[in-house]
Design a protein that fits this description.
Elements (H helix, E strand, L loop, with lengths): L13 H4 L3 H7 L5 E5 L2 H4 L12 H6 L17 H15 L3 E5 L2 H4 L9 H16 L3 E7 L5 H5 L7 H17 L5 E6 L1 H10 L15 H19 L5 E7 L3 E3 L4 H24 L10 H8 L3 H7 L6 E4 L4 E5 L21 E4 L16 H13 L7 E5 L17 H16 L6 E7 L18 E3 L6 E3 L1 H11 L3
Parallel strand pairs: 1-2, 1-11, 2-3, 3-4, 4-5, 5-7, 6-8, 7-10, 10-11
Antiparallel strand pairs: 8-9, 12-13
The chain binds beta-D-fucopyranose (FCB).
The site of beta-D-fucopyranose has 10 residues, from loops.
Length: 482
């Protein structure tokens, strides 16, 4: 295949950016895990079935102006009913592993007390179907669907939520600990804090700005307690977390811009990864101490819980971030989603006009996946367990041709380039796998159905699934492995 010019990074060598499926397959390290990733709320639908009760996202999506296309996830991709078809799609694709999330409000409605048998039964069926198809299950315990009653009590602003989360982890460990191959405790606590509690883009829609930072600590405490809960049940699977990392680059010279870039690196990357891997929050510059006071004043005993040894570390990578001085000109974030409060900030996220972008407006920058890995090698040398890229992928506008086919060349090129970097890895980081976001076009949070990331096209009216060219390409690549 000819590389799509607009998505080819000039810094990659030719062998790295080859889009030829078989050629790329030959570059994959032995035993490299190829997977696809999803999240319960984005695909399951059936939000009122099987004893499930509302989460913060059920409430948030019902509020005016929250979701850019006015849609909701009550049906989503109907995966709750169609999971056998979806597992079949994965089997035919040839992936080794599937990362999904276990809906907290489905398994423990209300977030306290006994498990809901019907909820457990759904994930039992899914896990067994995966194992029968030869696909290793990777289960995420928290992919953002906080049970609504816990939100009424403050959600992640309330320390108690961490303990409630550990109870839920124990329920999941008891039920699935004999079959899940890998556990992810929490997905992207960064996004929950920044989008959910600081900027109001995601559920629960709070606009606390820097006053949201205690939610970082409570999520991480929840992570540590969940690791302990899983270990107490002797689960057979490996245990990790999925943190998103965006390399941060100051845009423009000057002390101020550098300081804002450092601040962004702290609030987006370091305050989540450092405690987990190093057992402490970063050393905050004196000028930022007031902002970070809630994280400076934490108990050492909490940090010991947070820094549980992990079997692997999940890294989600989508893009780098360029930080420039000066307030944003309006409240619209680079991906087009409205963020109440962003205009109060003294810095903004600057675009990358020299790079191609996805339909979310995110820069396509495979080189920065290498930078992300190098950041980890430097920051966490000697402390970093094997790494899986637990998410990576791209939204593009797909056109369905007259014959029904979807020729998503840009997405294919994106995946080829990012996989090539993941295969090459970086000194000091043991990259073991890559999970593509995502199997199906789904309900993309505040963007509703307006952003398609899937290898498989889903018609929102008929729920028909149609593999795209990227799916066929990956199928070829996986088939060409030794
Ligand atoms: C990640 C989320 C995932 C999806 C992708 C596009 O931040 O973990 O659910 O929204 O972005």
């Amino acid at each position: 295949m000819t590389p799509a010019k607009n998505t080819t990074s000039p810094k990659l060598t030719e062998s790295e950016w080859t889009h030829d499926a078989a050629g790329l397959a030959a570059l994959a390290p032995k035993d490299f895990t190829f997977g696809v990733a999803t999240a319960a709320f984005q695909i399951e639908g059936a939000i009122r079935e099987g004893g499930r009760e509302p989460s913060t996202w059920d409430t948030f999506m019902g509020q005016p102006e929250r979701i850019s296309d006015g849609s909701d996830a009550s049906i989503a991709t109907d995966h709750y009913h169609r999971y056998p078809e979806d597992v079949r799609l994965m089997k035919e694709l040839g992936v080794d592993a599937y990362r999904f999330s276990i809906g907290w409000p489905r398994v423990q409605p209300g977030g306290v007390g006994k498990a809901n048998r019907e909820g457990l039964a759904f994930y039992d069926r899914l896990i067994d179907e995966l194992l029968a198809a030869g696909i290793r299950p990777m289960a995420t315990l928290f992919h953002w669907d906080t049970p609504e009653p816990l939100q009424h009590a403050g959600g992640w602003l309330n320390r108690d939520t961490a303990y409630r989360f550990a109870d839920f982890a124990l329920i999941a460990a008891e039920a699935f600990g004999d079959r899940v191959a890998q556990w992810v405790t929490i997905n992207e606590p960064t996004t929950v804090t920044l989008n959910g509690y600081a900027l109001g883009i995601h559920a629960p829609g709070a606009t606390l700005m820097f006053d949201s930072l205690i939610t970082v600590h409570h999520q991480l405490l929840g992570h540590g307690l969940a690791v302990q809960a899983l270990r107490s049940e002797d689960v057979v699977g490996q245990i990790g977390i999925a943190n998103v990392h965006s390399p941060v680059i100051p845009y423009g010279k000057g002390f101020k811009t550098g300081a804002y870039a450092e601040l962004f690196d702290l609030i987006h990357n370091r305050i989540y990864a450092d405690p987990v891997l190093l057992g402490r929050y970063p050393k905050f510059p004196r000028s930022m101490r007031t902002i970070f006071r809630p994280l400076i004043e934490v108990d050492d005993a909490d940090l010991a819980i947070i820094a549980q040894p992990l079997d692997f570390y999940g890294l989600n990578y989508y893009m780098p971030t360029r930080i420039a001085s000066g307030a944003p000109t309006d409240n619209t974030m680079p991906d087009g989603v409205w963020a109440a409060g962003a205009s109060q900030l003294p810095f903004h996220i600057a675009p990358w006009p020299e790079l191609p972008t996805t339909s979310f407006g995110w820069p396509v920058a495979p080189d920065y996946l290498r930078v992300a890995l190098a950041d980890y090698a430097t920051r966490y040398a000697g402390k970093l367990p094997p790494v899986y890229i637990t998410e990576g992928g791209a939204s593009f506008v797909d056109t369905v041709q007259a014959d029904g086919s979807i020729d998503d060349e840009s997405r294919t090129a994106y995946l080829a380039e990012h996989l090539a970097v993941a295969f090459a890895g970086a000194p000091g980081v043991d990259v073991r796998g890559y999970f593509i976001w995502t199997l199906l076009d789904n309900w993309e949070w505040a963007a509703g159905f307006s952003q398609r990331f899937g290898l498989v096209h889903v018609d929102a009216d008929t729920q028909d699934r149609t593999p795209k060219r990227s799916y066929r390409w990956l199928q070829q690549l996986l088939g060409a492995r030794g």
